[in-house]
Each structure stands twice: as structure tokens, then as C-alpha cells.
Amino acid sequence: MHTTQINPTTAERLISGLQQIPGNWALTPVTDNKRPYRQDWQQETALNRQTLIKELQSERAFGYGIRTGVVSGGILAIDADGHAAEALLQKLSDGDLPDTVIFSSGKAGRRQLLYFVTQDYWQLVKTVKLKTGVKDDDGKEQLLEFRWNGLQSVLPPSVHPQTGSYHWVRSPQDVEVANCPNWVIELMLNQQQPVAVPQPQTKPVQTTVSTRPNLSIFLGREDRDLVEHGTGDGSRNDAAQKLSLNLIATARRLQELGIDYDGDPRALYDQFCYHCTPPLGSDVRGESEGWWKNADTHAKQPSLDDEKLQGCYTAWLNKQKGTHSQKRLTVQKSIVSTDNSLLSVPPLTIERITRQDSQSIVSVVSGILASNLDDIEESFKLDLLCTELGINQKLFDRIVARERVKLDEVLPEDEMRLKSLIEWRNNKIDWDAILPAPLARDLTHDADVLNVDPVVIWQPLISAVASLAGTTINLDMQSHKIPSVLWTVTVLESGGGKSRADSLVVAPLRKMQAEAMQRYKDADNDYKRALKQWEKGGGEGDEPEPPALRKYLFEVATIQAVLKRSAENADNGALWARDEIAGLFNSLGQFSKGEDESLQILLKLWDAAALCVDRTSLTDSYFAERTAVSVTGGIQPGVFRKIFKDADDNNGLQARMLFAVPQRRKQRYIEGFCQLSDRLPLLYKWLEQLPEINVKISPQAKAYYKKLVEVIGDQIEQTTHAAIRNWMSKLTTQVLRIALNLHLIECFYSPNSRDITTLQKDTLERAVKLAQYYRSAFHVLQEKVSNSDEISSILLQIYDRASQTSDGVSVRDIYRPLDSIKSRAKAAGREPSAYTHDLFLKLEQMGYGEIVRKGRSVRFVASKIESGEKPFSTTDNTDNEGKYISKALFNEDFNVSDSHCQSLTVSTDNSVLYADYGQGYVMDKTEIPPPDDSIPQMPIEVVDPVLAEPQEVKTNATTAEITKGARVRVHCPGSKRHGLEGIVTRFVYEQGLLKAIVKLENIETSLRIWECFVPGNEGMRLELVE
């Protein structure tokens, strides 16, 4: 035996050599014969360097080798063992050998190259040894070896028995390990050397069509596995009993069904016995035979029922119908030793393993799922495909689940609904079309100064106007009166600027309240003096009455205090303003033990109803004949559901409120003066001085309102969402309240062109525009704060969260806080992270953003969808819930008089707002501006895109082309109804979206009725037949 004694200098040299070797390389000590000596060195955990050094200091180690493969982080070693091997390497690589770490033993023609294999291929590649046909002097054939798991390559400066030591050609200090070339990966995947083989000639051959299917295809998956692989000791007898019964029963049933087959059931059983470990019958004589004879007597039912047996036969027949062109390779004699059996199929390449092997499987699975098969047939085909492919069942199930999500999870109607929701989310009010020009200009100017959406200012402003109109101004509808009471809530995250906007609007009211308090104190002092004089006089004459404090504003207050003050101010209204509306509900005891009396009283305040409060003491009792308490405040989206706990809004609390969901603006500093700081005090003073007026509605406005009520009624009947249904039920009243306050604002800005005693149709139309926004905002809000597992709601929440940050959201950012995603993912058979990624892909496909990858991190970045220049009158034109008007009407602009916005006498001097009213002017109670007959009322025929005339619902479809009774053709590729024609019988609403009901022709009765959202999209729509 050859032995070499290691000396101290060698050990020191080896230990010093470790400094050049990366710390993540797994090393194992070797003898002077280059062989590892540690027991189980191929399976043991990688040695740390201290342990290796101890080995080097012993008398056993004469060097160390790198353990190739996964254990060293994917290091592959290419070992060229001589000149012939090097020549083969050069021929295979064709020059594609990136600069990398190289070392050699010093023998002629010997070297090893190290390359890094990416993790994607760690479990796929295997060690390959290629023969050159050239032998060395010692008779050993030179090999070209590609070393992977379970092998090692001795590294410098280890001892070599012939040359003394290994040395670096290119050390890790000189160059980094390069990425492995693709041709190496392809070669290892195929376990052959394809380039060294001369170019093969390809000959198309016709596959032989078998006349009968093999018996094995009629077996279940478990039985086929037993036949092919057998089973281990301990389960052989149970498996033999089961398989023998199924084989015999299947063969008999096929004969009864008239299905001829190839193969013998006993031959398959013997194959199973042979593949068992140990083979069944080899240890106990006659054991396998006993099970077979017993099965021949007792076999009754095959493992597959008749339907599946027939399906197997049908699938086999379909497979035999086609002819398949294959490529047969004819290879000339070569010096390279290869396994010729490998040449019967094309070589497996990286391109094929990623494209052909994965994408073709995915394509077939997707095709099966898209074929509209019944569940039994679909399951059978998928099961058969998995068996033929021979891939892992869990992997196959993941592919099926992913493709099913792609096909079925987001349907065309879901896409349309999401489109509407996102458009609603991005709606902006066209203030110039709704407000008088000076107010619209000041509102947008001040919004820019405060860096907020103008609606953040509008919300408290319209409520403040309503509170000052109070009980003195009502809209007379003959059968009842509409009070000037509005409750507005702004839904915005903390820091969005709502407090700044509230301060701008409420500040004049605070000043008015302070002045009222001072007047009250003075009057109270006078009252006390008068009371003393009356008492001194023996009570002769009328007793002096105590003064009442005029309340303009409530901020921190209890419901009892609000009622008491309201009773004392029966001739006036007040504003209850809370920066955070949650504080108002806290004052009601909302969070103690559910609903209480205070909440019920609050709800009555919205109706401006009379309130009678009786206490034990008469002095503590009071009666309010009429009230007018308007409310305004803000709430954060995350707090919304904590306050409005009842998602169905059964008590109607949400239905009484006008919610705004502003567009949040990026923080920035803007210098400027808020124009409304000067304008609002004048408006508030004018409103307070108005006499009691019962505003009447013009005949044109009443006719328009009558139609409006019918349309909203139709929409309510078609709405299934409980909270939205309740909110819509109060929308007609809300429209009138908004119109009344818009009317007052218009009279303030245009006193000579507006009759304050009459509400005109154009004002009502502008109120409808605002109602459109409030309806859209409430709809979107319900989707954003709900726990609904509707896919459109989930997609909206993903888009909304992604829109709030420039770098988007990660998969984890979405599925962790949303339980609805977890439940849907579980139902779809997907992991929540994978399911969320599927939804990211769908949103990207729909054009709502893009997926950005950074390493393994995946983020969805939302696209900016602007609607800034789009007039609000058209923002709902793509809303399917309002698409029951003809397309021609959609494109018509609102024919609304803008005289209230343009023909004004307005001074640019902030100290004087208009020529008609100077500062300090007090309007006499009897001085009501008469209507200006010189300004003719324009005839207006307006059909609102959302709240339209009811006749259109009954007679017209969503577009001018498709109407009730129209002949249409179904466009829905993949459906059995695709291309069929029929007649539109009626229209219905489903979840707020319009759907046409079509009666089809030339199809079985069960498929004759087709429901399709209109106008539809590329995936599913109706086409007019000329």
C-alpha cells in the first residue's frame, strides 16, 4: 500500500490554503490517494473550518476536496481527464466556457473548472460521465466528467500522489465562479453528449394505430401504480387481494360491455408480484397463487364504474384517430460512448423544460377546463392526463387550481363591475357645472391652498348652509315639507387635511356663536335685574322671561344637551360638527351595550321631527315643536366598520348620511389666502336673516322629480345589497334637501335672477349630479370596508391599497389583512400567497397596474387612472348600473342654464361681495327678491346618465342598438351558446349591474335562456343582428 507521512509544513500549507477558498464551500478531508475517508461523508453536514483544521493536523488528512452539488451552494465541477477529454470539452462547448475558477493536478491535459448552477436546476441535473474512447498508458479510458451531488474534487494545495500537489490556474481570489453555461445544463438533463454526435437525420414516421386498448388503462391510478411498482413488505398481501379482485372484475365487466382489450389480467398480476419488495411468493410458496384463485371466485365490481370505463375507451379512441409525426434519429458510429436508448426522443433542453414541459401541460389543462365539461367528465380527463404525464399529483393539482382560478375566478361580469367601481372611486365633481362661478372658483382655489380635494371643504359647507336655513326654510311638496337638514361625513385617513377644511368652514360659525354667547350674557344680566325689580314690586305685571342662548354650533355635546338647546331655539337650526364623527357616537353610549335610546333619538333628528321629552320634574321636561340639526364630521376608513357595525344598516343610520370619499393628495406646502374666509361670513349672515319661507317647486321640476322617483324605485327593486338598498330608499329625499340648499346658495349669488320662493328644474338637475357622486362614493365605500368575498370587491381593495403608495403592495400586504382572500384561496385549492399573485396577474392583464419583481419579492403597482378633466355628468357613462339609457343620450351634454354661474355682479374687492348687498346691509323680512322675468327659463330636456327617466328602463336596453325585442347574437367563446341567436325579452339588475335576458333559438330547452350583462366586453357580450 502506498503511504505518505504528512509533515508539519504540509499541514501548515493546507491550513493556509483555506484562506483562498470561499467559506460556503463544503469541504471534506482526503487521503494521499485523493479519497475521502470520513464515514458517510456524502450525507453528513458540511464541516466547519475548525473541524477541518483538526483533521488536517492529524495524520490522516493529506488534503481536502470540495463536495460538489447542492451542499456547496450549487457548485458543479467539470473534470477533463486528459487531452482527449479536453478536446471533447472544447467541441461540446464550442467556445462557450466562461472565465471561472480552474485548478489542475499538474498532469498533462488535466484540469477542472467550477461553475455555479442556479437553484432552479438543483433537483433536475445529474452527474454525467462521457467516454472518449482514448486510453492512457495505464489502460484507463480518459473521461470528461460533470460532477454533481455525492462527488468531490480535490482542491489545491492538497497532496497529489504523482505530481506532489494540486495548484490553482485561476483561484477564487482571481475570479468569481461563473454561472454554468446552458449547454452544460442541457447535457446533464439528458445524461448524454449530444453535440459530439454527428447531426442526426430526421425521418417522419407514422405511428402504428393499435386496434385494441391495453387492459391497464381501465384500472384506477392506485392499481396502475401497484402493477408498475409493486409494494413493500407489510402491505403486499392487502395489495394483492385488492389488485387481483379489481383485475378480474374489470376484465369481466369489459367483456360484458363489449369492449375488447389487449393484455391478460393474470399477466398484470404477476408483474405486480415481481415488483414487490421482496417479490410476492418468493418467501412463502403459493402465497401469490392463493390470492389469485380467491379473487377468481369473489371478484364482483371493478375499481371504475361503467361511465369511467366507457370514458377510458372513448379517450383511447380519440387518441388513436390522429397520426403523429415523430423524429427518428439515425446516428453514425462515434468514438463517444452514449446510451442509444436515449436517442429515441429529442434531447431535453432548458428551453424545453421551461416552455414545452410546463407550458404544454398548462395549455392542455387549460383546454380541458375551458371545454365546459360536466364535473365527472372533466375530473376523468384531468385524472387521465396526470396519469399519462406521470408527474407528481400535488404539482398537477396546483397547476389545475391555478388554471381554474385564471378561467373561472374573475368572470366577465366581475371585470365590468370592477371597472365601474374603479371609475366611481376616481370620480371627481365638476364644480363649475354645479355651483355659481364665484363659489366654484373660491372652493377650488382654497382646496389647492389647503392641499385637499374640494369635496373635503364642500361637505361641512353644505351642512353649515342647511343649519342656518334651519327651521325657517322648507321645501313645500304639498303633501309634506322637506326640511333643510343634511348629515355629511368625509371618509379620509388621518392627515388628509379634513381638519384644515373644517376650520375654514366652521370658523365663522364659531365667531357667530361667541357673539351670541356675549349677547346671551348681557341679556341674562338684564333679565336678572328685571327679575329682582319685579320681585321687589310684589310680582305685579308680567314676570320677565329668561333669555335663550342662540345655538349655531354644537361640537362636544351630549344628545340630551342638543335636544334641550334645540327646544330653546325652535325657530333656528344648528350644526353639530365633530372633527371625528366617532366622538359623536361615543357620546351616545354607542359602545356600551349595543343600540340605546340616544341613537334612536338621533335618528329622529334627521327627520326634523317634533320631540317631547318628559322628566320627573316639569322644569326638566321640554318640547321641541320642530328641530333642524345638521351634522358634519369625518371618519377614517379603518374606523368606519367599528362605528357602523351593522353591515346591512338595518336602523338606517348610514342611509341618512351623505358620504364623500375624497382623493387624497400628496403632502406639499402651498402659500396663499383662503378666499372663503371672507366670503362665508357674508353668506352665513344672509342666510340667518332670511324670513320664514316655504319654497315651492316649479311644475317642470316637479315633473322631473316624479320621473326621478320612479327610476330610483326601479333601481331599489333590483339592488340586493342591504345597506345600499336602504341608502337608495332615502335618496329621493336627499336629492330634494341638496336641491333646496343649492337653491339658497344660488339666490345668494344671483339675487336678481333667482326667485327664492321657487325651486327650478335646473337646480334640481344639479342636485342630481351631486347625488350621483354620493351614490358612487357610498357604493365604493361599502366595497372597501366590507368583508364581502365578492371577487370584484377584493380586486377593488387590492387596487385601492396599491394606489396609496408609489411602490405598490406586496402579496403579503394584501392577503394578511383580508380574510376574504384566505377563504377564497382555500376554496380554490390555492395558497393565499399564490392566489393573491394570481389576482395581481389578473389586475395587470386588465390594465390596472403592473407587477414589479425584485428578486423573490413581487409587488403590484397600480396605474394612475385620472378623471380630472372629465365632467361629472359623464363619469357614470361606463357604469353598468346606469346603462339602461340609449347610447345616444349618453353622449348628450346636460342642457343646463349657466346663468346662475356667469351673469353676476361681483366685486373683486374682498370687502364687498356683490353690488346688491354691501357689508352691513340687513335684509328686511318682507323684502323677498321677485323673479326676474327678463331672464327666460330655458326649456330643458335632460336625461341623467344614472338617474334617468323610467320609461327608458322599460323599453330600451343599454345601448341605442340593443333594445327589448331586438334580435341579438351571443359572443362568448368557449360556451355552447356562442354564435347562437335569440330575442331580448327583458332587462333586470343584478348587484347594481344591468343584465339582458335573451331567449335563444335552436338549442335544447335547458340552455335556451341566456343572461348577459350589457354592454359586455370582449369575453362575453351581445351583438345586434341586422
Key structural traits:
1026 residues; alpha+beta; Rossmann fold; 5 domains; 7-stranded mixed β-sheet; 5-stranded parallel β-sheet; 15% strand
Outline the structure in words.
This protein is of the alpha+beta class. The protein has five domains: 8-198, no CATH class; 215-320, no CATH class; 431-539 and 551-618 and 627-665 and 674-781, Rossmann fold; 787-862, Arc Repressor Mutant, subunit A (Orthogonal Bundle); 888-1024, no CATH class. Strands 3, 4, 5, 6, 7, 11 and 12 form a seven-stranded mixed sheet that branches. Helix 17 (559-568) links the parallel strand 18 and strand 19. The radius of gyration is 42 Å and the shape is elongated. The chain starts with 7 loop residues before the first helix and ends with a strand. Residues 192-209, 322-356, 590-595 and 867-960 have low confidence and may be disordered.
